[in-house]
């Protein structure tokens, strides 16, 4: 997979990774050990999830003495928001045009019914 948007959607296709992102958004930076605490999986398994998020650009790790806190790169979520918003807007415009056609058709049928 080459583009970042595809990597981000793929990374977030896993519920554990979505939960990690949600927790980082609410609680702020955390170590992999802290992130792994609520799960019934190994720290290594959570570390692999973090690696997938890191490869997608959703999180980064910095150095803080002995710790390597995981940081959410929230601006990457803007890519997803922009992509979804573009298609949501197009869908709304199509539904608005369909509503207008149906309203015109209802009006025409009402006029035909009144004339007969």
Automatic annotation (TrEMBL):
<dbReference type="Pfam" id="PF12840">
    <property type="entry name" value="HTH_20"/>
</dbReference>
<dbReference type="InterPro" id="IPR036388">
    <property type="entry name" value="WH-like_DNA-bd_sf"/>
</dbReference>
<dbReference type="InterPro" id="IPR036390">
    <property type="entry name" value="WH_DNA-bd_sf"/>
</dbReference>
<dbReference type="InterPro" id="IPR001845">
    <property type="entry name" value="HTH_ArsR_DNA-bd_dom"/>
</dbReference>
<dbReference type="InterPro" id="IPR011991">
    <property type="entry name" value="ArsR-like_HTH"/>
</dbReference>
<feature type="domain" description="HTH arsR-type">
    <location>
        <begin position="1"/>
        <end position="91"/>
    </location>
</feature>
<protein>
    <submittedName>
        <fullName>Metalloregulator ArsR/SmtB family transcription factor</fullName>
    </submittedName>
</protein>
